[in-house]
Design goal:
alpha+beta; four-stranded antiparallel sheet; four-stranded mixed sheet; 5 helices; 14 strands; 25% helix
C-alpha cells in the first residue's frame, strides 16, 4: 500500500532535499500527481472494468455523461412521477418518467449531463401517493482515458463487440440513420479523445462492460492508498523529480530523471494494452 507520504519521501531523496528546503510539500504533491497521470497515459496500467447501460437509438457515448438507466422496480399508485438526480460529481442530467396503471414504465432522457465520475442517484417523486419505484443509472467516468473493449450483456450471455477504426465502421454500419435502423449492437469505434460510437444503435437498453484505462484522481491525504498497481509505481518518483528539476531549470538533471523514468516505465510494463479487432477470430 503506497501513500502520498511514501512518494514525497522518494522524490525528496532523489532531489537531495529531504527537509523540503528547495521544494515545498505542495509542490512535490503537484509533481507526484502529474507523474501518476503521465504513467497511466504512457502504460495504461490503471485498467478498470466499468459497468453502464447502452441507450436505445444512442450511437455516441461521451465520457462523463450518463449513458442510460434501467427501471429496477416499477412501484405502484403513481399519477405523475418525476425524477431528479444527485451525486456522481457531475451535473445536468435530466429525464422524464411515464406511468401505466400506476406503475413507472418508461424513462426518457432530455440531457445526459456531463462531468460525472460515478453514477448519480435517481430520486423519484410523485404528485400523488406513488411509491416503490427505483431506477439505476449508468455512467462512463469522466476520468476515462482510453477504451480497450466493450462487452454487451444480453440475457444470460456476455459477448465482446468487434472493434474497427472509425472510417471502416462508419462505412460498414452507419449507412442507415439511427431512427430507421436499430438492433443488437455488434461493433464499436473510438471517436476523438473522449467518446466512442457503437453500431447498430441499440434497439433497447443493454447493460455493458467497458474495458477501459482511467486516469487516477489526485492523492491529497495520507490515508488513501494509490490505486495504481504496485508493480507499476516505481517510475512515478523519477517523473516527479524530472518536473521538479525542470521547474528549477536544471535541464541536465531533469533529462537524467526523465530518462530514468522512461527506462523504468518500460521495465515495469509487462505489455502495452491494445485494442483487438475481433476476439473470436481463429
Amino acid at each position: 500500500m503506497t501513500l502520498l507520504s511514501d512518494y514525497e519521501v522518494q522524490v525528496a531523496d532523489l532531489l537531495h532535499d529531504p527537509n523540503n528546503i528547495t521544494w515545498s510539500i505542495s509542490q512535490l504533491d503537484r509533481y507526484i500527481n502529474e507523474a501518476r497521470r503521465q504513467l497511466v497515459m504512457d502504460t495504461g496500467c490503471l485498467r478498470t472494468l466499468q459497468t453502464a447501460y447502452l441507450w436505445p437509438g444512442q450511437e455516441q457515448y461521451t465520457f462523463g455523461q450518463v449513458s442510460g438507466a434501467v427501471i429496477t422496480a416499477a412501484g405502484s399508485n403513481y399519477t405523475a412521477p418525476s425524477v431528479s438526480f444527485s451525486g456522481g460529481g457531475g451535473s445536468g442530467v435530466a429525464a422524464t418518467l411515464t406511468q401505466s396503471s400506476g406503475a413507472v414504465n418508461a424513462i426518457s432522457f432530455s440531457s445526459f449531463g456531463s462531468g460525472y465520475t460515478s453514477a448519480p442517484t435517481a430520486m423519484i417523486t410523485d404528485t400523488g401517493s406513488g411509491s416503490g419505484a427505483t431506477i439505476v443509472t449508468g455512467v462512463i467516468s469522466v476520468q476515462t482515458y482510453d477504451v480497450l473493449g466493450v462487452n454487451v450483456i444480453w440475457g444470460n450471455e456476455r459477448y465482446q463487440m468487434l472493434w474497427q477504426p472509425w472510417s471502416v465502421m462508419s462505412a460498414r454500419l452507419r449507412v442507415w440513420l439511427s431512427s430507421a435502423y436499430q438492433r443488437q449492437p455488434v461493433m464499436w469505434s473510438a471517436y476523438g479523445d473522449n467518446s466512442f460510437f457503437i453500431e447498430p444503435p441499440p434497439d433497447q437498453p443493454y447493460q455493458f462492460e467497458l474495458d477501459s484505462v482511467v486516469l487516477p484522481t489526485n492523492l491529497s491525504d495520507y490515508v488513501t492508498s494509490d490505486p495504481i498497481p504496485l508493480a507499476a509505481q516505481d517510475p512515478i518518483k523519477f517523473y516527479a523529480a524530472y518536473l521538479a528539476k525542470l521547474y528549477e531549470q536544471a535541464f541536465g538533471e531533469s533529462e537524467m530523471h526523465r530518462e530514468n523514468y522512461r527506462r523504468r516505465m518500460i521495465e515495469c510494463s509487462n505489455a502495452y494494452t491494445r485494442r483487438i479487432p475481433n476476439a473470436y477470430e481463429t
